[in-house]
């Protein structure tokens, strides 16, 4: 899959694609249905497939602290889109210029500069300055310029609307089984292992600190996790939060994973942490001794959880 950064980098072979537009946060089963439609139409027309997205996501541009927590960072989204078999991702930088782009100009980009051969959007899609454009505008453009425009209605799972918002609610509730059904894959976070204070080692519970590159995470607390390291699955216990017991409680959330029966040096490596079970909320303890006791209790519960899964 090829990533295209901005309109300036669009080449002739990118034009004529079957296109869909949106955040596609999480690439859940609703998104996957749209992507299947895009790929099927692309095969029918013998054209490439393309997804158009924006970085940062528009709500993050307006207020990074109040924007909904992302299910997937851009890198994670790209990995999932690659698995889905999309040919191109055209990523526009969302800035003041993008914010001021009118609905008419956005349609002009689709028609004249990308020359889309077909367009797929979700039923709640809107675009342009002040969200002034909608499906009716796209449909009119398609009729005028002879390309089909398809509106995918929101899918439901057991009478529940499938959306990134609903999945965030599942994660906040610790319902990882339902989140997995709505996503079509287990909820995970991918990141690079970096050096921390190594405080865990002084308590005999060394942890891998994983960069999140985000101000808000969709989950917080202590979890039983599986960690994919170089294709090997290692179970463990993870804390995702701001470490309120320690002096340097942080603004950005931190993901720390204690891996069971694993001692390899993995600093600098990129790993995937799959969340399987919520143990408890993150809390502030009276001191390190109380924190250490809680960690050992968390480890015991996580080990018990995985032992029961194997039965």
Structure description:
Helix content is 33%, strand content 26%. The chain is α/β, with parallel strands linked by helices. It is elongated, with a radius of gyration of 22 Å. It folds into 2 domains: 156 residues, HUPs (Rossmann fold); 123 residues, Elongation Factor Tu (Ef-tu), domain 3. The mean pLDDT is 90. It is built from 10 helices and 14 strands. Helix 6 links the parallel strand 5 and strand 6. The strands form 3 sheets. Strands 1-4-3-2-5-6 form a 6-stranded parallel β-sheet.
Offer a quick outline of the entry.
Helices cover 33% and strands 26% of the residues. It is of the alpha/beta class. The chain is elongated and about 70 Å long.
Helix content, binned percent: 25-40%
Give the strand tally. Answer: 14
- Would you list the SSEs in sequence order as H and E? EEHEHHEHHEHEEEHHEHEEEEEH
According to CATH, what is the topology of the largest domain?
Rossmann fold
Q: Strand portion, in percent? A: 25-35%
What is the structural class? Answer: alpha/beta
Enumerate how many helices there are, as a single number: 10
Catalogue the unreliable spans. Answer: none
Describe the strand arrangement of the main beta sheet, using strand numbers: 1-4-3-2-5-6
Straight-line N-to-C gap: 40 Å
- The averaged pLDDT comes out at 90
Largest sheet: 6 strands, parallel
Radius of gyration: 22 Å
The CATH homologous superfamily of the largest domain is named HUPs
CATH architectural group of the largest domain? 3-Layer(aba) Sandwich
């Amino acid at each position: 899959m090829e990533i295209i950064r901005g309109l300036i980098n669009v080449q002739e072979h990118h034009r004529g694609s079957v296109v869909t537009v949106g955040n596609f946060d999480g690439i859940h089963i609703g998104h996957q249905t749209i992507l299947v439609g895009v790929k099927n139409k692309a095969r029918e027309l013998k054209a490439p497939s393309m997804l158009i997205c924006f970085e940062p996501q528009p709500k993050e541009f307006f207020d990074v602290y109040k924007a909904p927590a992302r299910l997937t960072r851009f890198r994670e989204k790209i990995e999932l889109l690659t698995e889905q078999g999309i040919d191109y991702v055209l990523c526009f930088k969302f800035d003041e210029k993008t914010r001021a782009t009118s609905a008419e100009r956005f349609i002009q980009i689709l028609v004249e500069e990308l020359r889309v051969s077909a367009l797929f959007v979700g039923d709640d899609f809107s675009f342009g300055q002040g969200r002034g454009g909608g499906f009716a505008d796209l449909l009119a453009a398609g009729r005028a310029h002879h390309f089909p425009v398809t509106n995918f209605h929101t899918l439901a799972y057991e009478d529940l609307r499938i959306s990134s918002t609903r999945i965030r609610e599942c994660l906040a509730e610790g319902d990882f089984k339902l989140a997995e059904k709505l996503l079509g894959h287990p909820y995970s976070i991918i990141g690079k292992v970096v050096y921390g204070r190594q405080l865990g080692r002084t308590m005999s519970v060394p942890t891998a600190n994983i960069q999140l590159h985000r101000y808000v995470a969709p989950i917080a607390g202590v979890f039983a996790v599986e960690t994919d390291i170089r294709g090997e699955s290692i179970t463990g216990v993870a804390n995702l939060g701001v470490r309120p017991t320690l002096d340097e409680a942080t603004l950005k959330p931190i993901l720390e994973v204690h891996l069971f029966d694993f001692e390899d040096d993995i600093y600098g490596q990129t790993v995937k942490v799959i969340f399987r079970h919520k143990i408890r909320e993150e809390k502030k303890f009276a001191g390190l001794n109380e924190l250490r006791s809680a960690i050992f209790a968390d480890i015991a519960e996580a080990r018990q959880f995985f032992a029961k899964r194997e039965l």
